[in-house]
Amino acid sequence: MSTQQVLDWLTENETQSIERFIQWLKIPSIGTDPKHDPDTAKAAQWAADHLKESGFSVELKSTGTKDNPGQPIVLATSPGDDDYTGPHVLFYGHYDVQPVDPVELWDSPPFEPTHLPADDHAGERIVARGACDDKGQVLMFLEAMRGWHQTTGKPGGGVRYTILLEGEEESGSVNLEQFVDDHKDTLSKADVCLISDTGMLGRGKPAITYGVRGLAYIEVTLIGPDQDLHSGLWGGKVPNPINELTKVLAQLWDQDRRVTIPNFYDGVRELTAAERQAWQELGVDPVAALKGIGLPPEANIGEKGFNSIEREWARPTCDINGIIGGYTGPGAKTVIASKASAKLSFRLVDDQDSEKIAAAAIQWFKDRTPPGCTWEFENHGGGAPATCATESTPLQAAFRAIERACGIKPAMIKSGGSIPVAGLLKTTIGLETIFMGFGLEDDRVHSPNEKFELDCFRMGAKSHAALVEELTNSTSD
Ligand SMILES: [Zn+2]
């Protein structure tokens, strides 16, 4: 078929692709800052125009309510009813970017994209806010679509796509769930979701991320006396909420560093021998990673029976993310604070249920109420984990596409992080998600001097282009 023509088109038109990249990056689409609302609208329109030029039917959909409007969503679909082959793909990405502070730490202005040659620090790259997260990664897909349309005249090269680009990913996707609900009919026609917002295993080592973890997040407050007390007059006579809270918190793990909340591990998929073997063969070095954060090899600790990568990709965790209470000013103050609180998060794996975990955790605290004290709880929400079956037709197609485009078999990896949209699509419309991302660990996403390397851009654009033919050749049963 025409994949080679599209790959050639991408090479021949690279200068124009990079010019388009720079144009898009110049638009300061900081979705969380209302001051930038005209910019987010402009960035959305820019993407909509790009997709229109590639033959898609495109709409800009408003989100939120009249009183509290959200950022627009770009929704593009393949025109017409028939004449498409292979699985129907929902491509998800986001055009909003993180704020730029601290701006003084940028070597060049965040919205004046800078094209730098390869040097000791990194490869040839574009430095700007959003370069990697997620405009660069989305543009790989957009340019592949442009290439197919230019060379064959067919939108999406004959594969049916629905494309959803949101403008609130960096601020919690607050209107996405409602949007998915309102557009269930359109979105649920897709067979699989495709996202480019993840990383590779390393430079020149492309990867498919076939699973991300979910999240539950609660805050607990232990309340004792109705006022702060003098520790000389009251110490040893009454419950000190900080003492009592920390004693309870310390019971969250057993000797084997397993979480002690009843039913916490319900539904956790057991690792297969084949998966363990495959992960072992990736050659990820936990000691080097520890060294990179200033820790010695003996710091390689966690749930008994699992190695470092297994604990990150296949096991749930519980972490205290903050403890608040008592006197924290300079010097000494002998006070017993009237209350103390802690923020706790749980990273979850398939098939744990975020809401059930939060409820079980709250019950666990209630069962350990210190004498005379009371609890207050807040559920900060969470999201479902999402794992795509490695033998699924679209995932196998993505595997072959990357191998063809990059000349190397992609590593099959998971991520310990959470990408809530994947869990949302799984729970609301039953879609599995394939993450085909080309970021590098040192791309400084969310930080000053964010960059995207052109080698990564090339690999990604070519992989998305090759995926079209692989999907066309695959059957989606
Ligand atoms: Zn981000």
Quick summary:
The protein is α+β, with helices and mostly antiparallel strands and 477 residues long. It is 34% helix and 20% strand.
Structure description:
- The mean pLDDT is 96.
- This protein has two domains: 3-212 and 385-473, 3-Layer(aba) Sandwich (Aminopeptidase); 216-268 and 316-382, Alpha-Beta Plaits, CATH 3.30.70.
- Helices cover 34% and strands 20% of the residues.
- By secondary structure, the protein is an alpha+beta fold.
- α1 packs antiparallel against α15 (454-473), α2 (14-25) crosses α4 (135-152) and α3 runs parallel beside α4 (135-152).
- It is globular and about 85 Å long.
- The strands form five sheets. Strands 1-2-6-3-7-17 form a six-stranded mixed beta sheet, with helices on both faces. Strands 11-13-9-14 form a four-stranded antiparallel beta sheet. Strands 4-5-18 form a three-stranded antiparallel beta sheet.
- The structure holds zinc ion.
- Residues 98, 133, 170, 445-446 line the site of zinc ion.
Whole-number mean pLDDT? 96
Bound molecules: zinc ion
Physical arrangement of strands within the biggest beta sheet: 1-2-6-3-7-17
The coarse silhouette is globular
Q: What is the CATH architecture annotation of the largest domain?
A: 3-Layer(aba) Sandwich
